[in-house]
Structures are given as structure tokens and as C-alpha cells.
Amino acid sequence: MKLFSFWRSLATFRVRIALNLKGITPDEVIDVNLMQGKQREEAFRKINPMMALPALIEDDGTVLFESLAILEYLDETHPNPPLLPRGAKARARVRGLAQIIACDTHPLIVPRVREYLAHEFKVDEEGVLRWGHHWHTQALQALEANLAVSPHTGRYCQGDQITIADICLAGQAAGSSYFKVDLAPYPTVKRIVDTCMAIDAFARAHPLKQPGAPASL
Amino acid sequence: MKLFSFWRSLATFRVRIALNLKGITPDEVIDVNLMQGKQREEAFRKINPMMALPALIEDDGTVLFESLAILEYLDETHPNPPLLPRGAKARARVRGLAQIIACDTHPLIVPRVREYLAHEFKVDEEGVLRWGHHWHTQALQALEANLAVSPHTGRYCQGDQITIADICLAGQAAGSSYFKVDLAPYPTVKRIVDTCMAIDAFARAHPLKQPGAPASL
Question: Interface pTM (ipTM) of the complex?
């Protein structure tokens, strides 16, 4: 199994956490430097025409793309420990929370979008930071509103089992730090993230622990 | 079952297609007028703090949100006809294609983002149209690149079975028409969309067939 990765990619952070939780070590981790635009070069474009990280190549050559699809794949092919609860309603809540982050929020702050704002709309650095701050805040408010009152919230987003919602929440928290968003106003989010980040599988997967990452942001 | 819907919402279009394919008729369809900002009012905010459509309330009061999570829920609770293939790799491809649309593209062109661009960055109408056109084109190029060469593409995105990838592709095509993006340069996408839209479950779910919709765009 080969993983295409970059230290800063939050979507790849999700996949790294899942791999660690499942005890899977990729045979190779291939660096695609998003800051140098390597995801747009022909070599990677052939792997994933969407030119986005992560991508995973299975031993038979099958290419997997989109982080949530990869998480579900890893859960189906390596069921222990499970990353989704059993009941359909619980699964829907976990997937819904994950998608607030992975669909409604993260795609708005990825490099290609920030670059479009800067180049096409001439938004300055402060404006791009404000943009990122805004969408992160919207997501954190929605997540806190759900997590703080739901009877299904436990040690983690859904009861006491680590799920893909927690994996996405850890990525959300890392992304919030990129945009200087304080988690203090979102105490349930912060509690769950802190609980997750104390776990080795999460901590080792953190962007700042990857090759090429700076010591701090 | 209650469905919160708006004619123009592409994410709700996805859920309507799935409901039709599964032969489920919601007891009530509640209109949330996105053009009037009704999704931000307290009544709907209590249902979905993310203030986005669709939302689905089950008979026991369980609230479901995020269209892909709802599609998976409907598939788990009403397995026939299935909306995902059987093999893990095929499922990953279907989910990946769906997520190119539902994660990487559609969230960029929803009302709240268009409104932010207009109000905060003073992007004019032509600029917002260009923005929508750009992201649709990026997605269509990536989807065509995958669908045109993959040996797994058949009558539909994955073989001859309708899946959530086709459902999302139909939404992508409807969204592309909002932004005047021609599908002609993407013949495989267009062929699959045309095949889908000839099916009653897709055709009846189309935005322009919903209460309150204009005769054309």
C-alpha cells in the first residue's frame, strides 16, 4: 500500500489516524508538496485527476481517493477496531458530523481555493485568513451545538467509541490552529479533541509530526 | 419521515432521487427557502445547526443531516435497490466519485459562500458566476478523466448499477446548468447523466420539478 501525503494536508491527517488505529503501515509514503503545487503535475494528476490529497494505491494497483471514502474502505477491509458504530442512526450521525467538517468546511480552505481568492479576486493575506477563520468558526459553532446537547455524545463524538467523526474533528482542530481560531468557546469540541490527541494513533499522525513539517506554525 | 427541502438545493435533489429509487414517500416535505435565508432562522437552526439542507426527521424524532450521510442511511435501512456496489474497492470508487462532487465542489457554490464573496469581498455577480463556473469545470474535468478511462465505468459510473455516484453526478449536472457550464466537453459524464435523467426517479426529483421552482433557469 502506498500513501500520497503532505505534512500539512488535513485530509491526509485523517487517513494517517485511521491507518494508525488499524495498525496498518503503508509500504511507502510519497510526498506531494502542496506548497510547490506538485499535486498539479502530470505524475500525480494521473493518480488523482482531482489533484487533491490523499490518494492511496492498493497492492493490486487500485487507486483510492477522497479521504472519507478511504476511511470507509479501511474500515470495511480492516474491521478492527471499527470506526463506525453499529446502528444506522448512530452511523448517520457520525457520518453527518464528519461531513460537516469534510464537506461543508475543509474544502473551502484548501490551497486551490485560497489561491483562487488571491489570484482571481485579489484578496490579500489578511482577507484569506479572515475567510478561513469564518468557515472554521461556522463549523465549530455547529459542531458544538450538536455535541454539547446530544445524548449520544460521550467520551468521543458518538459514545465511547472512536469513529470517523473524531478523526475529522481532530483534523478540524488542526486546521483551526492554521487560521488562529481558538477552541476555548467550543468546550465539548475541545474536550473530545484533547482526548483524541492524547492517543498515540492521533498524536503520531499530526501534521507537525510529519517529515518536512516546521517545528511550529 | 419529514424532509426539509428547497427546490434549488442540489444536496436535497440527491436525497429526493434516493427516496424515489427506494420507493419511500416522506410524510411531509417542509420548504426552507434558501433564497430568503430561512435556513438561518431559529426554527431550522434547531433542526440542523449547520443551517444547511437537506435534513430528514425520522418517525422517532431522530434528525439526520448531510446528504451523503442520509444516502448511506437510506441504503442501510432500505437495502433495495442497493445504492452501493458490493466490493470494498468498488464502494471506495463510488464514494470517491460522489465526494469529488459533494465534498470538493458543491460546498464551494452554495448560497452562504456566494453571499460571503459578494458581501465580504465585494465580488460582483459576474465574478460569482465565474467562481461557480471554475469549480464546476474543475470537477467535470476530473470526473471525465476518471469515468472515460476506468474499466469500471459502465452504463452508470460503476458498472450497470445505479449508485450514489450517479445520484451526485445528476446533481452536478443540474448545478452546472445553474452556472451555464456546458457538458458537451465531458461526453462520458453527459452520457451517464442523460441515462439517469431518463429514469423517472431522477426526473421527478429534479429541482425544476419541485413546488416553487420557476419554469426554467
Answer: 0.97
